Amino acid sequence: MTQTATPTTARRFDYTFSPVGMVALAVILFWAIVAAFAPHLVPYPPGKIVDTDYFGPISSKLWLGSDYLGRDMLSRIIMGARYTLGVALAGVLIASTCGVVLGMAAAVLGGWFDTILSRFMDAMLSIPSKLFGLVVVAAVGSSLPALILTLAFIYAPGSFRFARSLAVNVNTMDFIAMARIRGESTLYLVGAEILPNIIRPVLADFGLRFVFIVLLLSGLSFLGLGVQPPLADWGALVHENIQSLSYASAAVIAPSLAIASLTISVNLLIDNLPRAIRDRSA
Question: Where does the sequence pass through the membrane (predicted)?
C-alpha cells in the first residue's frame, strides 16, 4: 500500500513596497547617507566665505548659491543634515525607548505604579510642546545634549500613552495568563510576550515622532534657540537667510525644501509600510 505524504504548510512572508513607499525610502536613505558622510561630501568648508556677494545666485561654482555671508549653501545644507538627523534620531530613540518600556511595564504591573506614572505623563502631555521646549532651552542652554534630552522628554509621554494602550490589550490575552501561571517574570512578559505583538505600531509611532521632533527642532532653531553657530541645522539655516526672500535667492528655499522632503518622505513611508503577509503551501 502506498501512503500519501501529508503536505506541510509553511508561512511565507511577502513584503512589497508600493512605488510611493520606495520613493520615500530612497529619499530617506539619501539624507541618511548625506548625514553620515557629510564631511567628505561638502565642496567647501561650511564656514568659509567663498563668494564676495551675499545671497549669491545659483551657478556652476555654487550649486545652491551663497548665504548672507557669502558661504556655500550646498555645503551648509549637507552639514546641516548631520545635525538635523542626528539630534532628531537621538531624541526619538530616547523618547521611544523610555516611553515604550515604561508603557509596557505600567500595563503589566498595574496598581499604584500604573496610576502614578499615567497621571504624571498626562500632566506632561497637557503642556504645549513648543512652549515647554522654549522654556527649558532658554533656561539650560542650547547645547546638543540639552537639546536631545529636552526633545526626548517632550515626546516620551506620548510614546508612553501609545505603548501602554497597546500593551493593556495584549495583557488581557490568554497566552499572557498562561505565562503568569508558569511564573514568568515581568521582564519576560514585557520583552518576550508583549513587545513582539506591538512592534509594528510602535515602529510606525517611532517614525511619526521622528517627524515631530524634526519639526520642533527646526522651529526652535528658527527662533534662535536650537543648534547654535557656528553649527547649524536646517531650521537655523532658514532663520539665518530669511532675508533672502527679498533677493529671490535659494538660501532660504533650499533648507526649507530639505525639511519638507525628509518629513514628507517619512510620513509616506509609514503610510506605505509593507503589509502583504500570506500563507502558502510548500
Answer: 20-38, 83-112, 132-156, 206-227, 247-270
C-alpha of 172 from chain center: 31
- Considering the domain 10-281 in this protein, what is its CATH number? 1.10.3720.10
- Nearest-angstrom CA–CA distance, 249 and 254: 9
Partners of residue 280 on adjacent β-strands = 10
Task: For the chain, give the longest Cα–Cα distance.
Answer: 94
Place of cell 521611544: 96
Q: Where are the domains of the chain?
A: 10-281
**Contact in structure between 212 and 155 (CB atoms under 8 Å):** yes
Question: pLDDT digits over 67-105, tens only?
Answer: 888 899 999 999 999 999 999 999 999 999 999 999 999
Contact 154, 133 (CB under 8 A): yes
Provide the 10 A C-beta neighbour count for residue 280.
9
The pTM for the full model equals 0.84
Whether residue 276 is predicted with pLDDT greater than 70 in this model: the reply is no
